[in-house]
Specification:
Elements (H helix, E strand, L loop, with lengths): L1 H10 L5 H24 L1 H27 L46 E3 L9 E4 L15 E2 L2 H4 L1
Length: 154
């Protein structure tokens, strides 16, 4: 009988108040970090991805021009970076495999095509942009346009 009482005391030990408070504090910190990342940043992340895509496409367009002495026409569009144009101004030294990584033309973070105009209206060589989350010109925050000319003004 005495052994049973000693065993019961050892099994009933449990957690101290300090251990419980530490675990609750850690869980609270983790929950707040996750909430901030999930709730406050998706719009910013999409805008940043669009800016990075535009920079990558700009670099590809410049490589295209270095090889061929001209940019793709508006009619050829950005597709000329992944497929050799068959119409219009044919590039004499088009790079096998294209000019974009993995040979894929990215869509903007809102699953729309990036827009391209050559020669440009705001830039002499070309304009490159996305209309943001709302798909319409202008806007603020996530709806703001992401352009290759806005980056050059700052």
């Amino acid at each position: 009988m005495r052994n049973l009482t000693i065993r019961s005391c050892k099994l009933a030990h449990g957690f101290t108040l300090l251990e419980i408070l530490i675990v609750i504090t850690i869980l609270g910190i983790l929950a707040s970090l996750i909430a901030v990342k999930l709730m406050d940043r998706p719009g910013e992340a999409r805008q940043l991805k669009a800016q990075m895509d535009i920079q990558a496409i700009e670099t590809a367009l410049k490589l295209y021009k270095l090889d061929n002495a001209f940019y793709p026409t508006t009619d050829q569009g950005l597709r000329a970076l992944v497929e050799k144009p068959a119409l219009g101004k044919i590039p004499p030294k088009w790079r096998e495999g294209g000019y974009l990584e993995k040979g894929v033309l990215p869509k903007d973070p809102w699953d729309r095509d990036y827009l391209y105009l050559s020669p440009g209206i705001r830039n002499r060589d070309f304009d490159l942009w996305s209309y943001g989350a709302d798909g319409e010109e202008g806007g603020e925050g996530e709806d703001a346009d992401v352009t290759n000319w806005a980056a050059k003004r700052e």
